[in-house]
Amino acid sequence: MSNDDKKFFGLCIVVEDKVEDKFEIKVLPVSYVPDMRSEINKNTNGMLNLVDSSNFHSAIASTSSDHIEATWLPNGEQNRISAPDVCKGDIVEVYKVHGVDEYYWQVFAHNQGLRKKEKVLIWFSNKSTIGPNREADSYYLLVDTINKIVHFHTSDNDGEACTYDIVLNTLVGKFMLKDNLNNDVLLDSPKGILTTNVVNEYNVNTKKINFNCNEFTLNAKLTKINSTITQFSGNEISHDGKDISKSHYHRQTSGNHFGGDTNTETPNNA
Asked: Taking the CA atoms of the chain, what radius of gyration do you get in angstroms?
């Protein structure tokens, strides 16, 4: 629709909250409302009750001609593909298509006091040619306070090494980072559990690492420890449930796997 096809109809007041994921809203011309700050309610007789800021009550007939159904016009918001979640009482600009009974709306002013929960989807094309937008060839950002989701997605259709998805689910308290190569990180905040899956290798390079826990479990097919000095302290060393603490006090001689003239002492020098 070109600018020549539409004409400014006027400012309108939103009669009902916009339905989630819909583009259409019901509006009423501001000229019908004595005070733009009026409270709008519909009674059982099909009348629109208006209560303005002076607590003045009035009513007008609620007929199909009173309500205008308008479709969202993303003027100036070309990357946003979800309509603003305007609520009852908000003011919008309405445009009419020349020669037909079609109406379009856009936000008049960002009145955050008249907003409730929102869902905003921002879409970024990642195509080299013209064509329909698909998730497979797009980047997008979803911020959804209705369903408590924040989701950032990247695609791999243009030579990227992989896709990425970063998802925050604040309703259940989970954070996830994953690619399409079977690598992922999941934080379950309520349970206090961090799970990491890395396909090939996990490297940590730093000066000092401290693990403080009640239980430490290592499951590996092969365990290697390369250390200039290895120290163990504790009350017991066991193997297959058998205490071997006192069986490990001996002097290593040259040629042993520890190498050199090395002492290995039992815990607490027992």
From this structure: 33
Distance of CA 241 to the CA centre of its chain: 47
CA dist., res. 236 & res. 31, Å (int): 86
Cα angle 86, 58, 85; round to 5? 5
**Contact between residue 119 and residue 21 where contact means Cβ atoms under 8 Å apart:** yes
Q: How many Cβ atoms sit within 10 Å of the Cβ of residue 212?
A: 5
Which DSSP category does 209 fall into? -
Which amino acid is residue 89, in one-letter code?
G
**Amino acid type, 26:** K
CB of 166 closer than 8 Å to CB of 177: yes
* Sign of the torsion angle spanned by Cα atoms 42, 48, 53, 54: negative
With a CB cutoff of 8 Å and minimum separation 6, the contacts of 23 are 71, 72, 83
DSSP string, 155-176: --TTS-S--EEEEEETTTTEEE
* Cα(53)–Cα(34) distance, integer angstroms: 10
Tell me the two tokens of residue 238. 């066991």
Q: How far is CA 159 from CA 33, 129, 138, 268, in A?
A: 56, 15, 13, 58
Phi, psi for residue 267 in degrees, rounded to 5: -55, 140
- Using one digit for the tens of pLDDT, what is the confidence trace for 210-262? 999 999 999 999 999 898 888 877 777 777 777 776 665 545 444 444 444 55
Q: What is the phi/psi pair of residue 113, to 5°?
A: -70, -20
CA atoms within 13 A on the CB side of 177: 7
| Residues 33-62 pLDDT 10s | 554 444 555 444 444 454 444 444 444 444
